[in-house]
Each structure stands twice: as C-alpha cells, then as structure tokens.
Write a structure and sequence with these properties.
The complex is a heterodimer of chains A (about 120) and B (about 110). Chain A is an all-beta fold and about 120 residues long. Chain A has strands at about 5, 10, 20-25, 35-40, 45-50, 60, 70-75, 80-85, 90-100, 110, 115-120. The model of chain A has no long low-confidence stretch (mean pLDDT about 95). A 6-stranded mixed beta sheet of chain B has the order 2-10-9-4-5-6, with no helix packed on it. The chains are: A mainly beta (about 120), B mainly beta (about 110). Chains A and B meet through strand 5 and strand 10 of A and strand 4 and strand 5 of B.
C-alpha cells in the first residue's frame, strides 16, 4: 500500500524558516518525480514544486521561487520542502503527492494527508 | 503561464442530477488535463487524467472529455458522496496550474 507520511508543520513568525518532510513507502520512490501542492485556508489548490526522480530537475511556482528549496533522499525515501523567508501568505496546508506514472502522466494519486503551516506574528 | 478557468464556481444540484463542469485553458494543452475531487478537510483525489481516462477505482458515473482549450467533467447521476469541490489541473508545461475549483452543493 502506498503511504505518504507528512511531518514538520507548525507556527512560525514571518521571515522564519520551516522544513516539511514526506516519507514515502509502498512504491519505488526513486523511480518517480514528486510534487508539493498547497492550499491556503478556504482557497483553492496551488502547485508549489515538482522534483524529478533523480533530483536533477526542480521546478517552482513563481510565488516560492528563491525562498523554498525542494530536495529528496532516494535512500531514505523522503521528500523535503525547506521553506525560508516565510510570509503570511504562505499560510496553508501543504500536501505531497505521488504521480501515477512517469513523464506526461504525473497526475497525483495518492496525496499525503497534508500538514498545516501558519505564518503569523 | 497557462491559466485554467473553471465554471461555474458554485453549483447547486440534487441527487440524481446530471452535472457538468467546464475547464477552459488560456492556450492549447492537447489532452493534458486532469480532474480532482476534494471533500472538506480531506486531501484531493484523482478522478480523471489525460482528459478522459478514469482513474482506477473511480465510479463510472464520472467522465471527462475535451481537448485543446475546453474540457468538461460530467457526473451522470449525482450521488450524496459527490458533494465536494472539483479542480482541474494541467500538466502541459511548468508552472503547473489548477483551476479555481467548482463547489457542488446540495440543492
């Protein structure tokens, strides 16, 4: 059974940093790209970042580029999201997602349960 | 960047109704579009990918169609568990984007 276990959310002050993790099991983690998506309270879904299976290609939304860093450890089957210079509008539930297949078929299923990040003074 | 516009943003319907949601892309994306369902407080769930392929385990009352810039999600006979918010997403090119969502409510 595929599982995505998320951790690392919480309350942080504006300008602060936070690291989210997504521990994967039940599939060959190193063979698939992985994606982060977020959802601000009461709002829609926003794609944040996708990292290739080897970690050599990483794509970011303009809203987080230069502040967030995505990485992966294919030995520990873990996806990470390092969030720096956090702003109030980064407050959201952050989801990691596993694609159903390789390039061109990277629709997300399943998703992790999500972790809440609150940026507030 | 490719923008996805969903309509309507809200939809009120009854059990048994046929429901159609539209997603329009700001430029052609071939068939690189998927649909997700999100129930309150839960993670999204993939329903349809590549415009019309039903994800494994998804009931056959859900169907998708379209190509290029206009896509539709149809629920042939709305069930109580279908009252949720639906999002489209494209995979044509980065940045990937989602539509604004369509909330399906009970009439």
């Amino acid at each position: 059974e595929v599982q995505l276990l998320q951790s690392g959310g919480g309350l942080v002050q504006p300008g602060g940093s936070l690291r989210l993790s997504c521990a994967a099991s039940g599939f060959t983690f190193s063979s698939l790209a992985m994606t982060w998506v977020r959802q601000a309270p009461g709002k829609g879904l926003e794609w944040v970042s996708t990292i290739s299976r080897r970690g050599d290609s990483i794509y970011y939304a303009d809203s987080v580029k230069g502040r967030f860093i995505v990485s992966r450890d294919n030995y520990k089957n873990t996806l990470n999201l390092q969030m720096n210079s956090l702003r109030v509008d980064d407050t959201a539930v952050y989801y990691c997602g596993k694609p159903i297949g390789g390039p061109g078929v990277e629709w997300l299923d399943p998703w992790g349960l999500g972790t809440l990040v609150i940026v507030s003074s | 960047d490719i923008q996805l516009t969903q309509s309507p943003p809200f939809l009120s319907a009854s059990v048994g109704d046929r429901v159609t949601i539209t997603c329009r892309a700001s430029q052609g994306i071939s068939r690189s579009l998927g649909w997700y369902q999100q129930e309150p407080g839960k993670a999204p769930k993939l329903l349809i990918y590549t415009a019309s392929t039903l994800q494994s385990g998804v009931p056959s009352r859900f169907s998708g169609s379209g190509s290029g810039t206009e896509f539709t999600l149809t629920i042939s006979s709305l069930q109580p568990e279908d009252f949720a918010t639906y999002y489209c997403q494209h995979l044509d090119s980065y940045p990937l984007t989602f539509g604004g969502g369509t909330k399906v409510e009970i009439k």
